[in-house]
Write a structure and sequence with these properties.
The protein has six helices and 14 strands. It is an alpha/beta fold. Helix 2 links the parallel strand 4 and strand 5. The two termini are about 30 Å apart.
Length: about 210
């Protein structure tokens, strides 16, 4: 499985395009907030002859779903996320206005509801859904065992964890869930976060001061 990273919008959100030799692909989060950022994604997808099978959302904070409707409309790709972020979906338009972002339409709605333990298949690749509430109650990570890769949104960062001071957040729950569900993964597992650089499970287990 290959992974292409795009860093989008003023909040520097990481959007990932995952694909393999079959040219089937999924996107993890869609932070593209402008037509120029939309075009970066479209150009990459077209130049690599990719077929977008779905958009996977780690959670529904507004900076991670700016481009969801564009992806859905352009590629007829179903949008998938865990239930429980209705509060943030309801606030999407007002949050965009509050932070000065252009209104890109209404918040996306789920075509697929994800559950802990679900498997998502595209091409020859498989991702397993891991529900890790605490940053929000709907946060999930996507784990590819074959490639030692974890796409975790704002759950875990290099040297840090997601903030838990927003509605639906719970710091104690977040740390407990990370320890019980993510730190049990192999040390060599690459951690692709929703913001900032890539890290590994082994590094975070030894060095993360929050864990």
């Amino acid at each position: 499985m290959e992974c292409k990273l795009f860093v989008f919008n003023p909040l520097q959100e990481n959007t990932y395009v995952l694909f393999d030799q079959t040219c089937e692909a999924v996107l993890v989060d869609a932070g593209n907030a402008t037509e120029q950022e939309d075009e970066q994604l479209r150009t990459f997808i077209k130049s690599n002859n990719l077929t977008v099978k779905s958009l996977l959302c780690t959670h529904c904070h507004f900076d991670h779903i700016f481009g969801a409707q564009m992806i859905h409309g352009t590629y007829a790709a179903p949008i998938a996320f865990h239930e429980g972020d209705e509060l943030w979906l309801d606030r999407y338009v007002s949050m965009c206005e509050m932070f000065g972002f252009l209104n890109r339409g209404e918040a996306p709605r789920a075509d697929i509801i994800l559950h802990h333990g679900d498997e998502i298949r595209f091409g020859n690749s498989t991702l397993r859904v891991i529900h890790v509430p605490g940053h929000s109650q709907a946060c999930v990570a996507f784990y590819c065992e074959a490639d030692n890769a974890l796409f975790c949104g704002d759950i875990l960062f290099k040297g840090s964890v997601g903030r838990a001071d927003m509605p639906g957040g719970d710091a104690n729950q977040l740390v407990s869930e990370i320890k019980s569900k993510l730190l049990i993964l192999p040390d060599q597992t690459l951690v692709y976060s929703g913001h900032g650089p890539t890290t590994t499970i082994g590094y975070e287990r030894k060095n993360n001061p929050y864990l």
